[in-house]
Specification:
156 residues; mainly beta; OB fold (Dihydrolipoamide Acetyltransferase, E2P); 4-stranded antiparallel beta sheet
């Protein structure tokens, strides 16, 4: 089961009247439960990829701290790199490494810009656009939501 399958399962549970879904294979088990309309998920068995990064539970986007943008800025010409999943945003591959990108760095479509931890798995996020990073919208180690903007890129 890949991350897309897990995302689809989470969407299914959140949109249906199902209270709990458990999916089990020989390699892992995942349980997804709803709690007053909010989806809560946790792996029953995890495979540690990088234990050096702290594990955090995803919180709603309203609670996620973000770097505020000024109202006078024109961001319409920029392309947003968005989170493909719910999880915790990290700018570094591990605590003792350098950040993937900084403001002013040039990226291409295959450039890794961050990792998002989801259910004890660390997923490398590619830019999927070429250009220059102009703004980082999320603080390191912050929870992020699906489709939340993470970076702004100037494609010119």
């Amino acid at each position: 089961m890949d991350i897309k399958d897990i995302q689809n399962l989470i969407r299914f549970v959140s949109k249906s009247d199902v209270a709990e879904v458990t999916y089990k294979t020989e390699e892992f088990e995942i349980s997804i439960k709803t709690n007053n309309g909010a989806v809560v998920y946790a792996p029953a068995v995890s495979h540690p990829v990088q234990q050096a990064l702290p594990s955090q539970v995803a919180a709603p986007a309203a609670q996620a701290p973000a770097v505020a943008s000024t109202a006078s800025e024109d961001t319409s010409r920029y392309v947003a790199i968005k989170s493909p999943m719910i999880g915790t945003f990290y700018r570094k591959p591990s605590p003792d490494k350098d950040v993937f990108v900084n403001v002013g760095d040039t990226v291409n479509a295959e450039s890794i810009v961050c990792v998002i931890e989801a259910m004890k798995l660390f997923n490398e996020i590619e830019a999927e656009v070429s250009g220059k990073i102009v703004k980082i919208l999320v603080e390191d180690a912050s929870p992020v939501e699906f489709d939340q903007p993470l970076f702004l890129v100037d494609p010119s």
